[in-house]
Write a structure and sequence with these properties.
Blueprint (H helix, E strand, L loop, with lengths): L1 H26 E9 L8 E10 L5 E9 L4 E2 L9 E3 L4 E9 L5 E3 L2 E6 L4 E5 L2 E3 L5 E6 L9 E9 L6 E9 L3 E3 L4 E6 L4 E10 L3 E11 L2 E11 L10 E11 L2 E10 L5 E8 L4 E2 L6 E6 L4 E9 L6 E9 L5 E9 L30 H5 L8 H19 L2 H10 L1
Antiparallel strand pairs: 1-2, 2-6, 3-5, 3-8, 4-6, 7-10, 8-9, 11-12, 12-16, 13-15, 13-17, 14-16, 17-18, 19-20, 20-24, 21-23, 21-25, 22-24, 25-26
Length: 411
C-alpha cells in the first residue's frame, strides 16, 4: 500500500510539472514581427524584430532567445543568451541582425524561446530575398550634340520592387562633357513609382556620359549605372524656314508671288516675314507679308506683290525670322520667272492685252480688226478647204452626176 501511495504522489508531481510547463508556454504570444528592409537584396544586411507578450497572470522566466538560421545568416546569434522573467501583461522585443548570403527566394528562420521552468516557444518568420534593381532609362536625348552647345537629357527612374527604396540620387560624369546639375536627388521611391530627372549637357567632344544611380534598401547602398554615347555633329536645332509651293501671277506691271513657308527646325520661330529683294521692288498691296510665329513643323501661306525691271529673269524671295533669344536669321529663295511662262514687255513690264489690233486711225475695219487678235489663231486654211469640198459636192449633186454614177455601178 505504501508503494501505491508513492506512485500516486509521483504521478501527481509529474502532472503538476507538466501543467506548469504548458501554462508557461501558453502564456507567451508573439504579437508582432518586423523586417527592415521589408525585402532584402542579395548581400544586404537587415534586422528581424520579434515582439512577445506575457498574456498570463504570473511571470514567465525566459532563459534565452535565439533565431535559428534557415537560408539567411544570423549575425548576432548569442545576443540573448540570458533574458530573465517577463511579468504578466508585459512585452519584450528581440532584434536579430541577418545577412542575405544566398539565392533569391523566401526563407523561414526559426525564432526560439527557451523557458527556464521547462518548455519552449517556436515561431517561423518568412524572410524574402529579391534582388531586382531600380531601373533608369532615357526618356529624351538628342542623337547628335552640336559642339559646346547646351542640350537636354531626360531620365526616368522607376522602382519595380515590392518595397520602397530611399535616398535615390543620380550623379553624371564623363570626359569632355559637363552638366549644369552636379547631381539630382529624387528621394524615396515607393513600389512601382516613377520619377524623372533632367540634365543640361554641354559636350566638347564625342565621348560617353555615365549616370550613376545610387539608392538605399534599408541601410544598404546600391548602385545602377547608365551610359549614353555622346556624338558631336551638326543638327538643326534653331528655327529653319523652308519655302514651298511657289506660284507666280501677273496683272499689268505687278507680279504676285504666293506659297508656303514651313519651320523645319526644332525650336519656335518668331516675327517671320516674307518680302522680295533686289532687283525686285516690293509694292502694294502686299509689299511685306507678316507671318508672325511658327512652331516646329508648322507652316503658313504668304502673298507678296512686286515689280521688276525689263529683262529680269528671277526674283529673290527674302524670309526673315528670329529665335527665342531675339537673334535674327534670314534665308533667300530664288524664284525663276522664265519657268513661270511670264513674258515681260518693255516699258511697263506688262503683257500685251488681247484687244483690238487694227492699225490706229483707220475708220473701217479689216478682217483682223473685225475678229480681234484671236482671229490670228483660227485654222483659216482648214476652214477654206471644208467650204470648197462642200461647194463641190453641191455642184455634183445638182448636175446629176451622182445618179449617173449610181446607175453605172448597177450595170
Amino acid at each position: 500500500m505504501k508503494r501505491n501511495l508513492c506512485i500516486l504522489l509521483l504521478l501527481s508531481l509529474l502532472v503538476g510539472v507538466a501543467a506548469a510547463e504548458t501554462s508557461s508556454a501558453e502564456q507567451i504570444a508573439v504579437t508582432s514581427v518586423a523586417l527592415d528592409p521589408g525585402t532584402l537584396m542579395r548581400g544586404d544586411t537587415g534586422t528581424v524584430t520579434v515582439e512577445i507578450q506575457n498574456t498570463g497572470d504570473s511571470g514567465v522566466a525566459i532563459s534565452r532567445a535565439e533565431l535559428y538560421s534557415r537560408g539567411v545568416v544570423v549575425v548576432n546569434d548569442r545576443t540573448y543568451d540570458s533574458v530573465g522573467t517577463l511579468g504578466p501583461g508585459n512585452t519584450i522585443s528581440f532584434t536579430f541582425t541577418v545577412r542575405a548570403d544566398t539565392e533569391d527566394g523566401i526563407y523561414y528562420p526559426l525564432f526560439y524561446l527557451d523557458l527556464r521552468d521547462g518548455g519552449s516557444v517556436r515561431y517561423s518568420i518568412p524572410v524574402t530575398i529579391e534582388s531586382t534593381a531600380i531601373q533608369v532609362n532615357v526618356i529624351d536625348a538628342p542623337e547628335t550634340f552640336p559642339a559646346n552647345s547646351e542640350d537636354t537629357i531626360v531620365l526616368s527612374v522607376g522602382n519595380p520592387r515590392g518595397t520602397s527604396v530611399s535616398g535615390v540620387t543620380i550623379t553624371p560624369s564623363g570626359e569632355g562633357v559637363r552638366t549644369t546639375e552636379t547631381a539630382v536627388f529624387l528621394g524615396a521611391l515607393a513600389p512601382d513609382e516613377e520619377k524623372t530627372a533632367t540634365f543640361s549637357v554641354v559636350a566638347s567632344q564625342s565621348t560617353e556620359l555615365t549616370f550613376d544611380l545610387s539608392y538605399r534598401n534599408g541601410i544598404n547602398e546600391h548602385h545602377t549605372t547608365l551610359t549614353i554615347p555622346i556624338e558631336i555633329g551638326d543638327r538643326v536645332v534653331e528655327p529653319d524656314m523652308v519655302v514651298n509651293n511657289i506660284e507666280i501671277t501677273q496683272s499689268g506691271s505687278t507680279i504676285t508671288l504666293t506659297g508656303d513657308v514651313t519651320n523645319a527646325g526644332l525650336k519656335d520661330a518668331y516675327a517671320v516675314k516674307v518680302t522680295v529683294d533686289d532687283p525686285a521692288t516690293a509694292t502694294d498691296p502686299y509689299p511685306v507679308y507678316v507671318v508672325g510665329g511658327l512652331e516646329p513643323d508648322d507652316f503658313s501661306s504668304f502673298e507678296v506683290t512686286c515689280t521688276v525691271p525689263q529683262g529680269t529673269s528671277s526674283i529673290p524671295l527674302f524670309v526673315q525670322y528670329r529665335d527665342e533669344d531675339g537673334k535674327t536669321y534670314s534665308t533667300t529663295v530664288t524664284v525663276s520667272l522664265s519657268s513661270s511662262g511670264l513674258t515681260l514687255q518693255s516699258g511697263t513690264g506688262s503683257e500685251n492685252p488681247g484687244g483690238m489690233s487694227g492699225a490706229p486711225g483707220r475708220g473701217g475695219m479689216g478682217m483682223t480688226g473685225s475678229f480681234g487678235s484671236g482671229f490670228e489663231k483660227m485654222p483659216v486654211t482648214e476652214i477654206v478647204l471644208v467650204v470648197v469640198v462642200i461647194a463641190a459636192g453641191i455642184v455634183v449633186w445638182r448636175k446629176g452626176y451622182v445618179g449617173k454614177i449610181r446607175a453605172r455601178f448597177r450595170r
